[in-house]
Amino acid sequence: MNRSFFFTPFSPVVILFMATFFLLAEKASCTDPQFLACEPKSCGAQNISFPFHIQTAQQEFCGYPGFAISCNGKNKAVFNLSNNEYIIQEIDDQNHSLRLSNAAGFGKNTSCSPQIQNISLNDDRFRLSTTRTGVLFYNCNSTLLENDSKLLNHKVDCSGENGNVSTVAMLDDDALLGSASEKCEAGVVAPVDVYTGENVSIGKMLERGFVLNWVASNCSECDESGGRCGFNYTTYQFKCFCPDRPHARSCKSGEYFFSS
To answer: ω before 9 within 30° of 0 (cis)?
Structure first.
């Protein structure tokens, strides 16, 4: 067998290898950079994709305006709403909803001092899925609480509190609301999910958070066609980033989106 065949410059093996190499290299180099930039990312257990984007890991055009997410030092996805930070517990792309809990939190290792503030939604991109609200009262006189057994049942544990003050929580229609406001310095309102027949304290309700629905461009058509959804902040239009180039709605639509 003539082994020199495999080493001649124009042997079929060499030509086939070089052709395959250059074809693969050309295909990789021709993939649209915006499509590559908008690859879904994760923060802890949360997978992040359009309409959200992680500020430090993705380009702004990978998300819808107002849907930026940060990934904190504890590897938790954090969403800023009404100038307050909320931990994202769950994202439901199908129902366009996410469950949030205030980053201040509850429990032995957290503080629920007035870091938890009123939530205000002055934005048509978001709406609460619940109509019930809980009220959290701060700096309640502990001595007065001890003398009110009913109100004492509403006390929640917060680290950092001294023995002179306490925090209580209750639903907005609780009969003890007036009594609590007299014994405490300040109160804030927070949305809660209340389920029929459930025997859970208001403190636990506040801890598990609430569901927020969002309104943004529908990504399903682009996603199902193999594209990655994005947004043009210059023209303020939805874009479908595909391996070849940006399209208007879908990689199968045949309608290209040319950036200016």
So the answer is: no
